[in-house]
């Protein structure tokens, strides 16, 4: 059995006299995909149904003949296709001649079978080729005189067959082609090698057309030429098309090489096959240096992993490729490039190659970055001004009642400290203190009412659409395009009754916080967002990040509490207020393996 196991790549198995499988080698298991064979039916299951009786009869023949026999049958490959096998079965007997087992060893003969089938078809075609092929077929003797010409040849030349037979095959050639034909024909006569030449031949209407002439010698047993079998194919339109194609190719090459952007081409598996001149000169690289994924060495280290992942995703899925990353240029510096690629498919939808462009967007990206920084500074200044203005307004509104409270308090102390104490006057001062306190309270109530969200436009909203739209808004930021955000939702989720815009404000805040948490510790942000029904009438949304986690879970939702160097600490406080205004709840938990999980519950419709 060890010998059978080592017969790779041959397939081998052993059957007991009861025809129950005794052993199947690993090569058979790998080939058929069946790992266990407990009965003969398990073995027969991989044989083509039409060939099962043939194999069973083969076993009987082996047993009767007492010697090995061969049989050909089809076996199902693990890819579900049947392939032809040549099987030799040996009867193994004990010293008394009793059958111990059958041992079958098989090898794949699919290619041979296909070749035999092809050969049979070719033989059939060859018998009809002379009568049906749309080409000039003729036979010439060893001296080049025609001894046979088919009807197409006769029609092409516009002569009678009697006028052609016995003549040289070069009689109809253009004067410019005659020297070429004589030279090549002399070489074939001398070497007894086939002739293959393109010539201008005159047809029945006097017009010369390009024709490809091939001639193959038939040799006798002494190696001498008996006849030449000749085939002439009209390729006039092809030659003209090739000339036009060469001209178009030349013009297209000049256009592609001079366009003010990089153009590249790869094979279906991503192997670079072409870089235009501008891309080569601007990046200082060559096609050879870009092969086998070495082009990634010119991508900025921080962008390399995301770029490779995006390109492989496009190749594996056949979707459009779009990536903005930094690329090393000829002077050694890095420029921002926008890469776009589209697949070229054949008529069956199979990708044949990829075409793409590389656009230098360095100035645009840096301008956008400066614009974002300016906007951020302006937003921070606006927030500071708003807080200052709000503080001044609150101080102004409270200053008068508080001043009166202090004055009346001091007066009451003086009235009570007099000898004797003036209780009546002190009582009046205390009443004025109470009056001013109520005035201050009313002022605070008015300020609180000012910031209350009195109108929330709730409507039935699909959670998956709402979340994906928020993710898309985050990805529109060029700095966050490559952030990995995985969304997982069950097929059937109840709709939530919310103000879509306000809940998306919460989601965007949580997503941005998660991205910044990961980036602050030098990690590539990876977020997971999921949703599920939790309790009756409630739906739970979870946002999980891969940051360091939260130091204080109790205070992060307090106003003006933040772990960011430039944050105001009001985002989570406002988010919780929005959730509560919707009848929901927002809280956070630290995960055992690191990272934080923010959980948001919302009422369903």
| CATH level 3 topology of the largest domain | Heat Shock Protein 90
Cα radius of gyration in angstroms? 44 Å
CATH homologous superfamily classification of the largest domain: Histidine kinase-like ATPase, C-terminal domain
CATH architecture of the largest domain: 2-Layer Sandwich
**How large is the count of helical segments?**
17
Proportion of helical residues = 40-55%
Number of domains: 5
Distance between the termini: 68 Å
Major beta sheet, specifics?
5 strands, antiparallel
Rounded mean pLDDT is 85
Rough outline? elongated
Reading side by side through the largest sheet, how are the strands ordered? 2-1-5-4-3
The level 1 CATH classification of the largest domain is Alpha Beta
Proportion in β-strands: 25-35%
Q: Would you tell me the structural class of the helices and strands?
A: alpha+beta
- Which spans of ≥5 residues are poorly predicted at pLDDT below 50? 565-569
| Total strands | 22
GO molecular function, one term: phosphorelay sensor kinase activity
Enzyme class: transferase
Domain Histidine kinase: 393-605
Protein name: histidine kinase
Explain the overall architecture:
The protein has 605 residues and is an alpha+beta fold. The chain folds into 5 domains: 2-114, 2-Layer Sandwich (Beta-Lactamase), CATH 3.30.450; 133-239, Beta-Lactamase; 256-360, 2-Layer Sandwich (Beta-Lactamase); 365-451, Helix Hairpins (Orthogonal Bundle), CATH 1.10.287; 459-603, Heat Shock Protein 90 (2-Layer Sandwich). It is 43% helix and 26% strand. The protein is built from 17 helices and 22 strands. The strands form 5 sheets. It has a 5-stranded antiparallel β-sheet with strand order 2-1-5-4-3, with helices on both faces. Strands 7-6-10-9-8 form a 5-stranded antiparallel β-sheet, sandwiched between helices. The longest helix is centred in the middle third of the chain and has 56 residues, at 362-417. It is elongated and about 155 Å long. The two termini are 68 Å apart. The relative contact order is 0.04. Residues 565-569 have low confidence and may be disordered.
């Amino acid at each position: 059995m060890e010998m059978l196991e080592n017969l790779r790549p041959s397939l081998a198995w052993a059957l007991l006299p009861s025809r129950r499988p005794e052993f199947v080698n690993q090569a058979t298991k790998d080939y058929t995909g069946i790992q266990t064979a407990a009965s003969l039916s398990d073995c027969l299951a991989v044989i083509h149904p039409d060939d099962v009786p043939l194999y069973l009869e083969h076993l009987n023949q082996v047993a009767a003949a007492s010697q090995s026999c061969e049989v050909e049958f089809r076996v199902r490959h693990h890819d579900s296709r049947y392939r032809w096998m040549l099987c030799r079965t040996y009867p193994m007997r004990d010293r008394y001649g009793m059958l111990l087992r059958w041992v079958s060893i098989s090898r794949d003969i699919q290619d041979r079978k296909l070749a035999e089938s092809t050969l049979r078809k070719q033989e059939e075609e060859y018998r009809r080729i002379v009568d049906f092929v749309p080409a000039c077929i003729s036979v010439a003797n060893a001296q080049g005189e025609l001894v046979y010409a088919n009807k197409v040849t006769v029609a092409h030349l516009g002569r009678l067959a009697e006028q052609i037979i016995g003549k040289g095959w070069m009689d109809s050639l253009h004067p410019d082609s005659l020297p070429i034909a004589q030279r090549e024909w002399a070489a074939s006569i001398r070497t007894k090698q086939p002739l293959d030449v393109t010539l201008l031949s005159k047809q029945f209407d006097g017009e010369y057309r390009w024709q490809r002439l091939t001639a193959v010698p038939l040799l006798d047993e002494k190696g001498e030429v008996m006849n030449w079998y000749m085939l002439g194919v009209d390729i006039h339109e092809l030659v003209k098309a090739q000339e036009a194609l060469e001209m178009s190719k030349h013009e297209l090459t000049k256009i592609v090489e001079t366009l003010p952007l990089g153009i590249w081409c790869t094979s279906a598996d991503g192997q670079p096959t072409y870089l235009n001149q501008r891309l080569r000169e601007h990046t200082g690289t060559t096609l050879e240096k870009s092969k086998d994924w070495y082009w990634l060495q010119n991508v900025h280290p921080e962008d390399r992993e995301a770029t490779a992942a995006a390109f492989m995703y496009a190749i594996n899925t056949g979707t459009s490729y779009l990536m903005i990353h930094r690329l090393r240029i000829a002077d050694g510096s890095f420029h921002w490039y926008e890469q776009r690629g589209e697949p070229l498919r054949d008529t069956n939808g199979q990708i044949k190659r990829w075409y793409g462009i590389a656009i230098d967007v360095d100035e645009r990206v840096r301008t956008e970055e400066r614009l974002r920084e300016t906007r951020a500074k302006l937003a921070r200044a606006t927030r500071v001004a708003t807080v200052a203005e709000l503080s001044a307004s609150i101080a102004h509104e409270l200053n008068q009642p508080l001043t009166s409270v202090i004055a009346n308090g001091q007066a009451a102390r003086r009235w009570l400290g007099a000898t004797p104490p003036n209780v009546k006057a002190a009582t009046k001062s205390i009443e004025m203190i109470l009056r001013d306190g109520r005035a201050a309270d009313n002022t605070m109530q008015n300020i609180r009412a000012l910031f209350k969200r009195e109108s929330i436009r709730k409507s039935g909203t699909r959670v998956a659409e709402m979340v994906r739209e928020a993710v898309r808004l985050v990805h529109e930021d060029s700095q966050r395009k490559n952030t990995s955000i995985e969304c997982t939702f069950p097929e059937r989720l109840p709709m939530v009754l919310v103000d879509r815009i306000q809940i998306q404000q919460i989601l965007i805040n949580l997503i941005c916080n998660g991205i910044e948490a990961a980036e602050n510790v030098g990690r590539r942000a990876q977020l997971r967002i999921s949703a599920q029904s939790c309790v009756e009438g409630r739906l739970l949304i979870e946002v999980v990040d891969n940051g360091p986690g939260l130091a204080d879970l109790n205070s992060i939702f307090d106003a003006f509490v933040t772990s960011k160097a430039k944050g105001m600490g009001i985002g989570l406080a406002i988010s919780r207020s929005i959730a509560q205004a919707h009848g929901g709840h927002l809280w956070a938990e630290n995960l055992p393996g690191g990272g934080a999980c923010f959980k948001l519950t919302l009422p369903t419709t």
